[in-house]
Amino acid sequence: MDHRLFLAARALVLADLEARQQATAAVVSALEEAVASRRWWAEQWPEGEVYVAGLVAQDVQDAVVDAGGRWPECRICRRGPVHALHIQPDLGGPDPVWVCEESGTAVAELGRLSFPGPGG
């Protein structure tokens, strides 16, 4: 198993966490746990390597929700309640993209969220 796959997934998710100022110690710990978990998962299903980065992002997003937060929040919709972005496709890849859950608008590729601005 190529460990660069997991380092790349970690780097993409960490970049998005930092872009939204969510890279706290607790969230980065959740990221480390997600990477370790997906390493085992990919060892069991090597053909699933293309899904790892998106699945790690989803795992971290779930951990943030479980802790009572929301990440990443949509910043392109100016009206309505605050809502999150989600990784598409649902399985996390290949080529995962953050999509607004309300409008269905693709906001940014995983690892490319920005702050501030419409994509951020």
Topology:
Layout: H1 4-19, H2 25-44, H3 52-66, E1 85-88, E2 97-100, E3 106-109
Antiparallel strand pairs: 1-2, 2-3
Helix pairs in contact: 1-2, 1-3, 2-3
What do the pLDDT scores average to?
A: 92
Report the strand count: 3
Question: Which oligomeric state applies?
Answer: single chain
> How many domains comprise the coordinates?
1
Give the strand line-up of the largest sheet: 1-2-3
Overall 3D form? globular
Estimate the helix proportion, in percent.
Answer: 40-55%
> What can be said about the biggest beta sheet?
3 strands, antiparallel
- Uncertain spans: none
Tally of individual helices? 3
N-to-C terminal Cα separation, in Å? 33 Å
- Percent strand equals 5-15%
Using only C-alpha atoms, the radius of gyration works out to: 14 Å
Helix-strand category = mainly alpha
Helix/strand order: HHHEEE
Molecular structure report:
The relative contact order is 0.18. β1 (85-88) and β2 form a beta hairpin. By secondary structure, the chain is mostly helical. It has helices at residues 4-19, 25-44, 52-66; strands at residues 85-88, 97-100, 106-109. The protein has a 3-stranded antiparallel beta sheet. The longest helix is centred in the N-terminal third of the chain and has 20 residues, at 25-44. The protein is built from 3 helices and 3 strands. The chain has one domain (4-109). α1 (4-19) runs antiparallel to α2. The mean pLDDT is 92.
